[in-house]
Design goal:
mainly alpha
Length: 84
């Protein structure tokens, strides 16, 4: 079955999703992943999937707090600048 969306529409959806909160993006990603049949081999790396599930559980339990993407980017830029 082909997509009813064009690439431009898909890019817009992805861009719009980046404006969601971390929790909303996690919920959206989980919802989408649950629609992928287990027989598909696109999620081959079980170690990555296990790590993602572990981190999701930590987020949901409150064991860790989400960090806004803007803060992560600022920290990364700072770290890069301090190396130079």
């Amino acid at each position: 079955m082909g997509s009813v969306l064009g690439m431009k529409d898909l890019k817009q959806i992805a861009e719009d999703a980046l404006h969601l909160t971390v929790a909303e993006r996690v919920t959206l990603a989980e919802s989408l992943l649950l629609t992928v049949p287990e027989s598909e081999d696109i999620l081959v790396d079980t170690e990555i999937l296990d790590e993602a599930e572990r981190r999701l559980a930590q987020l949901r339990s409150g064991a860790v707090k989400p960090v806004p993407a803007s803060e992560v980017i600022d920290r990364a830029r700072s770290a890069i600048r301090s190396r130079n």
